[in-house]
Each structure stands twice: as structure tokens, then as C-alpha cells.
Amino acid sequence: MIKNKFVVGLTGGIGSGKTTVANLFAEYGIDLVDADVIAREVVSIGSDGLKAITEHFGKAILLVDGSLDRAALRAQVFNNPQQRLWLNNLLHPMIRHQMLTQVQASTSAYVIMVAPLLFENHLDSLVNTTLVVDIAPELQISRTIQRDGVSKQQVEHILASQMIRERRVAQADNIIDNQGENELLRSQVLRLHQQYLQQAADLETDLND
């Protein structure tokens, strides 16, 4: 866990509404640290991550403007466990370092760490409590198809690569059910926001004793 900070690890499967939930917490002035955003930053133009990837895979991995061709990179690692392991060993420590840096720089009462692979990448070891946004698989599929314009087969493939719903829910300290109306979602976020404010205050009291 991160010293002197109360950190909530927010996760959920693809299409579950993690970003929507995170933004509702942000409306209460809570800082967000988003693993997906950081994952893009560590391979941006001029970054050490992009330089290392280019040296390893060659310049065919770049778009005309010099940025990372994500589709080309996916093609390189998709059916190649060795190359995928190399890429993960490069990027995961960079992402983890940036997440920790951003958490330490936070000034809100507590911090929301948004990480799709919170449990899979053992990032839950960095947080005080975990929150899973949960919806039924058929809703995940329909929402993702609608949002991203991808095929059902592609979504099912992504779902198969993520932790199964039952395991994710079993590991969660708190669960948000995102299958209902927006008002129900907002009421769940408000209840948890008040809970996390109290837990953060309790932590601060313990640290000062």
C-alpha cells in the first residue's frame, strides 16, 4: 500500500462502465489515476517506452507521424507469448511507477486508481480497498459493440482474456451494480464516496496517533 494515502482500486470488465463511475467520483473532487491513460503516455512520441519498442520491433511498428502503430504492435504480440512477455516486462514497471507518482501527487481526500487489470497485474497490492463495477456479460458485449463499433467475436475474445466475473466479484471489497438507471448508479457512488471519506479520515487518525 501507498504510505499516507487512502487509495481505492477501481476495476471491472470491458464495457462495465469503469470510466463513467470514475467520473462520478471526480465530480466530488476526487483525483483519478487511470492506468489506461498512463499506458498511452509511456509509449507517446519521445518516450523511453516508444524508443525501446522501436529498437526491439523495428520502425515498422511506427505510424507516419512517428507515433506507435497499436494495431501493428498487437499483431506482433497477439499469438507470440514470448514477445508479449517482453512487452509486459517493459511497460508494466513504467506504468506502475507513473501511477505511484500520480497517487503521491494527489491532493484529494482519497484517490481512485482506475485499472482494468487491477487483480491480474497485482495492482491491488497498492490500494487500501477495491471496488468492482459489475454488469452481466451480455450487457458487457452489447455496450462494447455499441461503443467501439467492434464485432461480437472481438468482444468475446477480450472477455475471455480478462478475469472471469465471479472471481473479480469475489475479490472485491465493494461492488457497484451498473445494470440499472443512472440515478441508482449515482446513489451507489455517493454512498461509497462518504464511506471512503470516513476510511481516509480513519487512516489519517491512525497515522497521526
What does this structure look like?
The chain has 209 residues and is an alpha/beta fold. The protein folds into 2 domains: 1-30 and 108-209, 3-Layer(aba) Sandwich (Rossmann fold); 43-107. 55% of the residues lie in helices and 11% in strands. The protein is built from 9 helices and 5 strands. It has helices spanning 18-26, 35-41, 48-57, 70-77, 81-105, 137-148, 152-161, 165-171, 182-208, and strands at residues 7-11, 31-34, 111-114, 129-134, 174-177. A 5-stranded parallel β-sheet has the order 2-3-1-4-5, with helices on both faces. Helix 6 (137-148) packs across helix 7 (152-161). Catalyzes the phosphorylation of the 3'-hydroxyl group of dephosphocoenzyme A to form coenzyme A. It is found in: Cytoplasm.
Find the CATH superfamily of the largest domain.
P-loop containing nucleotide triphosphate hydrolases
Task: Indicate the proportion of strand residues.
Answer: 5-15%
What overall geometry do the principal axes of the alpha carbons give?
Answer: globular
Strand order of the largest sheet: 2-3-1-4-5
Low-confidence stretches: none
The CATH class of the largest domain is Alpha Beta
CATH topology of the largest domain: Rossmann fold
What is the helix content?
A: 55-70%
Cα end-to-end separation: 19 Å
Mean pLDDT: 91
Question: How many DSSP H or I helices?
Answer: 9
Gyration radius from CA atoms, angstroms: 18 Å
Counting structural domains, the number is 2
CATH architect. name of the largest domain: 3-Layer(aba) Sandwich
Main sheet properties = 5 strands, parallel
- Which structural category do the helix and sheet elements fall into? alpha/beta
